[in-house]
Amino acid sequence: MYKEKPDQMVSVRTLFGIDSDLEVPAFSKRDEYVPEIDSAYRFNPDVTLAILAGFTRDRRVMVQGLHGTGKSTHIEQVAARLNWPCLRVNLDGHISRLDLVGKDTIVIRDGLQVTEFQEGIVPWSLQRPVALIFDEYDAGRPDVMFVIQRILERDGSFTLLDQNRVIHPHPYFRLFATANTVGLGNLSGMYHGTQVLNHAQIDRWNIVAKLDYLPREEEIEIVVARVPSKNTERGRKLIDSMVAVADLTRKGFAAGDLSTLMSPRTVITWAENCEIFRNPARAFRLSFLNKCDEAERPLVAEYYQRCFGEELSSSYLNSEENLSNLGSEEGAAS
């Protein structure tokens, strides 16, 4: 058992700017497994407190939300500010039980080939003060999920059958997960490959936090932070229109008018592509519109027209020199 443990207590109010008297254990030194701090990241107070409860009280915390809301990044950025080692495992279809538990491998010892057991990510993490994140939790295979279920109990031990060995979790091992559907399956049609999870397993998660998209002004600030060249009066006006389009796609999706929506990640990509193509309309087509169903593109084009004050088709076909309104001004400024 590794003896490392947090060596200081930090104030949530000081570190995260949240009105709370909670103090959280943290490490004074960083190591190679601590994520890099993203100074532009915006924390949701409720979700942040839920994650901090996981670090402080050893709660199993699941963060649920639509794609692009920053679920995994939220956990990583909390860990980064606590200097807490953090590992992220994406539960795609290629992750197997052996990847999590471990397997026998052939190694060279004193010039001879010998078989040696190599620990998987679960037993390796359990023995260390590590925050383990299971990303896309609702996409995991059934055999993989039942391996995870064995460690969901806060004091649950983990048995390596091949080694006749029982691993007791490190006192500062922490477990988190992110999911799009909370184990309800692909009800919306957006998340193909997600599974209907065993309710007994979902019940073992102590805290389930829901992360929604940020308020409009905060989303604008994040996009501007990611694309600093847009931190001008014209640039901010352009980003405001972009976020307005994104907001309309989200409302359209909620109303059943669209089968896809624009996430904050896509808005950032759109802003970055404006730097490349010097044309917001062309960048919009290449960043989002071409991903939409053909039958829905006229509605998405209408959203663009409402926010930018010009037809998408005409603004796309015009050259950069002939662009008008906000799009042309920003294209020239870029």
TrEMBL record:
Pfam families assigned to the protein according to its UniProt record, in alphabetical order: AAA_5, CobS_N
InterPro entries assigned: ATPase_dyneun-rel_AAA, CbbQ/NirQ/NorQ/GpvN, CobS_N_dom, P-loop_NTPase
The protein's name: Cobaltochelatase subunit CobS
Residue ranges of every copy of the ATPase dynein-related AAA domain listed in the record: 61-185
Gene Ontology molecular-function annotations: ATP binding; ATP hydrolysis activity
Domain annotation Cobaltochelatase subunit CobS N-terminal: ranges: 4-34
